[in-house]
Design brief:
mainly beta, Lipocalin, ten-stranded antiparallel beta barrel, two-stranded antiparallel ribbon, about 60% strand
Length: about 350
Amino acid sequence: MRILFSILFLWLSFTMFADGRHGKDDSLHMYQKIDTTYIKDYHDIFTLRTIAVIRFNNFTLTDNVSGAKMQYVLNDNLNMGLGLSFKGIGIEYQAKIYGKSYQYALATGGNSRRFIYDVYFRYTKGFRTHDKYVLSLDSLGKPALYDYIYRPDITNYNAGFNFLYVFNNKKFSSAAPYSFTQRQVKSAGSLLLGTYALLYGLTCDTVLFQDSLKNKFQPELQFNNASSYTWGISCGYSYTIVIGKYWYVNIATVPGISFQSFYSTNAYNSTSYQKGSIGATLQSRFSFGFNKKLNYLGVCYAANNYFINNDSKSSLNYKFSSFRIYYGHRFDIRKFLKKHL
């Protein structure tokens, strides 16, 4: 599986790199078909950046009949890393500074002139409840201890892709507020249209709630093993507001509709539950900062919401999001390379 994803990542990276290159007969720009009064290109400048990342990964069980709900979140974590990019190809490495959850992730993504794409595989083990619960009673039978429920046995994995086409790709840069290989000179936006797919799974040693709550959750949510496949079509809009000369704010919202196939195994009697349904997703991004020729600073929040098995009786909703801080410096080494190569 890891080898297959690695090959796919390399192929996509070079495909998107090729998409960003064009012949010298372009009417608007020597190498790219962009309007240079709206976009300043930095693809040919070597860039080094530092990154701080906090990832959020949560899922929610909801019984719509009894009203019972339980949400699990990723244990607190912070990752630091370095990244570099040149000629449209980027490499990024991150290491966990602190955190109680075990995480393994393999991902690639890009913002070329016409396309935005993400391909990923994530594996996480170790969650806690979002809310505090009664864990013990005193001698009078009253609550004595409230605390989070920690579940190091819960394993969450997901693999998939998001692919979007940028319609206004001559005046709007999807790369400027996120990969910083370009700068948006004038405010502009674009309609986005694409497709996505997700393979999602949950496993644990026992059910996800206390035995006393068994009758409050539908049988399909009383699982110790569940999985879902989602495929859909998405359409949304992204807009970048340029403030002054170098400051910017970008907002992107991309809702989608999908077909889902959900499967779970009951932890009490091992019976299986399977259902296909129509679901929904919501991808959203927000970024702001400044972007100059020699350096840039950006803050970005990105979230993907998947509403799985969302029927009249029960639902399992999954959300993955991240908060990033970038600081980068550009080194124009084109004259050096031209002289020595």
